C-alpha cells in the first residue's frame, strides 16, 4: 500500500494526488525493469523508523489538556530536538520536547488519530543498505 500525506480526512488535494501518482508510477517502473532482468547496483537510502506513538497531555478524567504547539504543526518529518516546543496548554504554557535524541515526528495532529490517543508518532532517521539486486529470470 501507498499512503501519501498529510491531508485532512475527506479532502482531495491535487498536490498530494500528484505525489501519489508519481510514487505508484516509480514502483510500477521498478517492477517492470526488474521483471525484464535489469540489474540494480547496491544503494543506501534514508528512512524513518517508528519509535513510539505519543499522546496528548491529559488530566485525571482523560481529557486533553494541551494542543500541538504552532511551531510543531505541519512540520511532519522535520527534526524535533530536546527543548523544542511540543504542546501548548489551554493556559498558554509551552510544554517542550524532552528527549535524549533528535526525533522526526509524523502524523502530527491528524484528526483520524484523536480517538486513538495519538498526538503524533516519533520516528528516527536511519539508513538502510541494499545489496546488488537482479532477477533470476534470464
From TrEMBL:
Domain AstE/AspA barrel-sandwich hybrid: 44-125
Classification via InterPro entries: AspA/AstE_fam (IPR050178), Aste_AspA_hybrid_dom (IPR007036)
Gene that this sequence comes from: Aspa_0
GO molecular function, a single term: hydrolase activity, acting on carbon-nitrogen (but not peptide) bonds, in linear amides
Gene Ontology CC terms: cytosol
Name the UniProt record assigns to this protein: ACY2 Aspartoacylase
Origin: domain of life: Eukaryota
